[in-house]
């Protein structure tokens, strides 16, 4: 707490990474998996190349991961009680959406799982609003704020798309994924070969994960 900002951030990121692994294990245990599988999945998470890379720098990804896993854990808890229990997962998803806007995808996924799943539904209309509104309101505030201050609701995406103007959709997708996973392009540049290289390395990453 009283150390330099760089040192303090490192400890915060480490705690967030360990918290994410713990939450993943809890989610899997509550989903009916064995202790061995849950512990193994948590171990694979903290040893994954992409996860450790983003956990080692002061950025928003580890916080968003913890909040997303917290959303899922709270969702599991909400399914076991009354409609008021749907408020905590909505609040956590709203906080995750403020941290990383793309985290909002969890909201439609969990609602669809609840309404269209093979298991008995636990959410009524009151629970739906208790879950959806705390997630949507902060996200809407974020997008409106970005629109007011930058002229677009997704400034980072717009800057990237302008840089890749004229490129095909697959080229944009693989280039974006390559930047995210820090996969270097081949020299001399070849979009087809680069895309194949990125796809191959992604396959290895997710197979390892």
Polypeptide structure, described:
The protein is mainly α. Helices cover 73% and strands 0% of the residues. The chain has helices at residues 5-30, 35-46, 49-55, 61-78, 87-99, 106-116, 125-150, 155-163, 169-181, 191-208. Helix 5 packs parallel to helix 7.
List keywords for this structure.
about 210 residues; mainly alpha; globular
Order of secondary-structure elements: HHHHHHHHHH
Query: In percent, how helical is the residue content?
Result: over 70%
Helix-strand makeup class: mainly alpha
**Biggest β-sheet description:** none
Please tell me what the overall shape is. globular
Radius of gyration: 19 Å
Distance between the termini: 33 Å
| Unreliable runs | none
Helix count, DSSP H or I runs of 4 or more residues:
10
Quick structural gist:
With 209 residues, the chain is mostly helical. The protein has helices at residues 5-30, 35-46, 49-55, 61-78, 87-99, 106-116, 125-150, 155-163, 169-181, 191-208.
Describe the secondary structure blueprint for this structure:
Blueprint (H helix, E strand, L loop, with lengths): L4 H26 L4 H12 L2 H7 L5 H18 L8 H13 L6 H11 L8 H26 L4 H9 L5 H13 L9 H18 L1
Helix pairs in contact: 1-2, 1-4, 4-5, 5-7, 9-10
